[in-house]
Amino acid sequence: MANSNQAPLRVYAPASMGNVGVGFDLLGAALAPVDGSLLGDIVTISQITSGVEFEQVGPWAHKLPDDLQQNIVYQCAVFFLDKLKRQDGVKLTLQKNLPVGSGLGSSASSVVAALYALNEHFGLPYDQQALLLLMGEFEGQISGSVHYDNVAPCYLGGMQLMLNTTKQACAAIPSFKNWYWVVAYPGISLSTAKMRALLPQQYDKAVAIDFGRYLSAFVHASYQQDEKLAIEVLKDVLAEPYRAVAIPGYLAAREALAEQGMLTTGISGSGPTLFSVTDSLTKAEQAKLWLEQHYVTEQGGFVHVCKLDEQGTRRV
Ligand code: HSE
């Protein structure tokens, strides 16, 4: 059954941090600004007689391709109609609130909002796991490779660990509810594919062991709710050493934030957004001010003090 003769369905999909520093391609978290604002794309869907009508609006719509048929949201709709052999159609509006190439899971947010909205509209033909796999495949078409560390937290909320097993794509792990995640987007755009190309094809054995140790220790600390241990091991040995220099101002910001008493700082996804962690709202607000003055360099850049978004994608 399609969602006919009803008010258009409106779906919000939150911004997310891939990797969360310590879990390259394997860990991700959804973000919720503490001021209550929405930081993520919104897709609205309604029924039409046939085909796909699509429009893109919002603050970052001008950065998307002009050819609407190239938009991933349009392609998600075509895929759904074809797969379900529908004779009727859908109209979708993408409100593009996240900057492209920001490291905040912008493409994931569009894909997840679109597929969630389509699935709801058509009466839930896909279950949660199947829909998540589909989200990963579509997002991979934009970012250049299939990784779930943005789509999984964006869809399901909280902190998600990728399992990539046949039965289960990911699992939620406990987070530290008293932590604030200050996220700063400087205003420039970096392509995930290019930032992935900076990484080596192979790593030393010692680095591989450190990666496994830090990630497993972080997961252990999360279950134990051992903040000190979690911060001590929240280290990125796979990506940050190669990406840091490609992000203007990142290393200086990381140093300044440490001096201000922030607990740790890392790259959100493939950058240029950085995240910085504290358990003090006062320190978070101070870091926000500093980042606004020193890290945000272009128009459109922003800083948000966030908690994790535990709800994930939802109707709004
Ligand atoms: N894990 C991916 C990367 C995600 O770092 O390349 C980017 O959001």
What does this structure look like?
- It comes from Shewanella aestuarii.
- One of its GO terms (biological process) is threonine biosynthetic process.
- Pathway: Amino-acid biosynthesis; L-threonine biosynthesis; L-threonine from L-aspartate: step 4/5.
- With about 325 residues, the chain is an alpha+beta fold.
- It has two domains: about 10-175, Ribosomal Protein S5, domain 2 (2-Layer Sandwich), CATH 3.30.230.10; about 180-305, Alpha-Beta Plaits, CATH 3.30.70.
- The chain has ten helices and 13 strands.
- It has helices at about 70-85, 105-120, 130-145, 150-155, 190-195, 205-225, 225-235, 240-245, 250-260, 280-295; strands at about 10-15, 15-20, 25-35, 40-50, 50-55, 90-95, 160, 170-175, 180-185, 265, 275-280, 300-310, 315.
- Strands 2, 3, 7, 8, 9, 10, 11 and 12 form an eight-stranded antiparallel beta sheet that branches. A five-stranded mixed beta sheet has the order 5-6-4-1-13, covered by helices on one side.
- Helix 2 (about 105-120) packs antiparallel against helix 3 (about 130-145).
- The longest helix has 20 residues, at about 205-225.
- The relative contact order is 0.19.
- The chain binds L-homoserine.
- L-homoserine binds near residues 19, 24, 103, 196 and 270.
